[in-house]
Amino acid sequence: MKNDLRQMLHLEPQKGWLNDPNGLCFFKGEYHVYFQYAPESAQGNGGKCWGHWKSADLLHWRFTGTVLFPDSPDDRNGVYSGSGFVNGDTLYLFYTGNVKEEGDHDYTTSGRGANVILVTTKDGHNMSGKKTLLRNCDYPDYCSCHVRDPKVWEEDGKYHMVLGARTLDDKGCVLYYTSKDLVNWEFEQEKRISDGSYMWECPDEFVVGTKRFLSISPQGLKHEKYTSQNVYSSGYLDLDKGTYTEWDCGFDFYAPQTFKAPDGRRILIGWEGIGDIPYTNPTVALGWQHCLTLPRELTLSPDGRLLQQPIRELQALRKESAKLTSGETLKAQLPFEITGTAQAEFTLEFIDVLRLKKSGSEFSLEFINDSAGCGRTVRYAQLGQCEDIRIIADKTSVEVYLNGGEKVLSSRMYPDSTELSLRSDGVDAVEYKLDGIEVISDE
Ligand code: FRU
Question: Is 22 in the pocket of ligand 1 (CB under 6 A)?
Fold first, then answer.
């Protein structure tokens, strides 16, 4: 069947442009996913807004519409990224109001206002008035005008906020603020490592098990064969060790955010896209662009690394299964899932579309056909033994989870047909046909 390019498992806008997930939380019995949204332009033009989906079970979603617009002096050029904090019966949303002054400016050292703004909501959809909490003059002197993406949490009887920043001498860092009332914030400290970046976007500090991590999306890292293969990177600092690990080695991943589910799980959702990419997405011609990743549960491996797995709720979407045995070919209908056991070296091919290959300690995801890759070529991940492989393929994307989620590769892909032929050489797997999630729209 011809592929109409509509995702069935991933949240994407009906029209317009999506980037970062924002304000992720569980509030009054429902999960809330806000996102950076340019409803009128699939290219992302015009002032950024926040769109809003909500769901009781992470499978049945409702799009309630555009809930925050760049309509005040302090956010007139964009309601940029931010986070949600549940305070009793009220959801507090913190975001960056982007302002571009008229005149001759470079918008890095002058001409840009980066305001931390608070709105509150009782139902997730209807917003209070906007209150500006921090302005450029409240950031350390050494910061440029690029300071943004507040993430707020409570710990040790205080509220904490991290902001991503670019210093005047072009280094990426994170600013830490604390507050007793969620309204008045004081600068506390700064964190950076010398990683060669000029800007860190979308910081998020959180604990999994016994360990503390700081997720960042650094810009300006040197591109290497196995790391920072994309225009911008995204990963986490292990705050005990100071090491940086990328979240995802595929073509399309950036600006993730985490939140805590009511059962204690730490769930991550990323943007399955990146800004300023050299490759394309053919949905633009149809009026929309980009989607979010599947929600992923984060757990700690016995040796203290983070593992990512698609949330277990998605298993409810599994329908008929078929065996895919090494040496054989199987026809599969998108969307589908594959869970398999891999030999030391293997190749799994979506014939004419994509080749997944493990050779020595190198894993590669390579497009065979440029009409499916749209400029995407090959991405690598380095990993030792790889016993298990899990793939979730939607109509225009694939997420590959290796070794229990030790490495993940996410990519958009655009096969002409929703029927793919899979060929395995070295993987014994079960293939499940998947139902889609349900998304209804109030618009
Ligand atoms: C990351 C980002 C954020 C910013 C938002 C604007 O993709 O650049 O830093 O708040 O997008 O849409």
Answer: no
